[in-house]
Design a protein that fits this description.
By secondary structure, this protein is mainly β. It has one domain: YmcC-like fold (Beta Barrel). It is about 0% helix and about 55% strand. Strands 1, 2, 3, 4, 5, 6, 7, 8, 9, 10, 11, 12, 13 and 14 form a 14-stranded antiparallel beta sheet that branches. A hairpin with a 2-residue loop joins strand 6 and strand 7. The longest helix has 4 residues. The protein is globular, with a radius of gyration of 17 Å. The two termini are about 30 Å apart.
């Protein structure tokens, strides 16, 4: 299971990949393209309210219950991977009263005419977060795990988060092979809302309980503030 915020759900060990070309500049120039669904320029940053179901962090904790954090994303530079230019996104879960700060392995993202693409250092290829221009009913497969599928399920959906109200494109990602360690849950779904000129506004990760067929929320993020250069 994988999404822009997978690291908020499961601790991921990622192998190192040789990266060249880190530093300023990069595709798109020094300023963001405000028509993009994920504007990219070094220095752009986003801050999110993050909730993670309590039993995901400490299995002995009961649910319902949530651990609440602030998560930040910042574009810290550029990288050249296998001849393709990416922006480097550093994702950090800030400390709260119980847990220390946690900086996740960087994610590499780029935008072209076909969509918004990302990869982790160990991935052999990109996975597409959003296909553009967006149209309801568009579907595509994950570039790393072909069993994972994506679908654009809404355009112009109004979403209200602490940062404001935005018209969004909603993408649903579905993993038919996900199975929890205790065998009680199968399938995972990630719903992500993108706003043009802003980026990711909201993201929710769900899993389906086998005994009831009900979908249960694992984690969510909501945009609280952002800076686009």
């Amino acid at each position: 299971m994988k999404s822009a915020y997978m690291a908020t759900v499961i601790e991921i060990a990622i192998a190192a990949l040789l990266v060249t070309g880190c530093g300023g500049g990069g595709d798109g120039g020094p300023q963001s393209d405000l028509t993009s669904y994920l504007p990219m320029a070094v220095g752009n940053n986003w801050s999110y309210d993050l909730r993670i179901r309590a039993d995901l962090i400490v299995p002995t904790q009961a649910h319902p219950g949530w651990n609440v954090f602030v998560q930040t994303e910042e574009i810290t530079g550029t990288a050249l991977l296998q001849g393709t230019s990416y922006f480097v996104f550093q994702i950090t879960r800030l400390a709260n009263a119980t847990y220390p700060e946690l900086a996740y392995a960087p994610q590499y993202r780029r935008v072209d005419a076909q969509g918004v693409h990302a990869r982790y250092p160990a991935d052999p290829a990109d996975f597409t977060l959003l296909q553009t221009p967006p149209q309801v009913g568009d579907t595509w497969a994950d570039g790393v795990f072909p069993n994972i599928t994506y679908e654009t399920v809404a355009i112009g959906e109004q979403v209200t988060v602490p940062a404001g109200t935005f018209d969004c494109v909603k993408v649903e990602m579905f993993d038919p092979d996900a199975l929890s360690g205790d065998g009680e849950y199968r399938f995972q779904r990630v719903d992500t809302w993108f706003a043009q000129g802003v980026g990711i506004v909201k993201d929710e990760t769900w899993e389906q309980k086998i005994s009831s067929g009900q979908w249960e929320l694992l984690s969510d993020i909501k945009l609280r503030e952002y800076e686009i250069l």
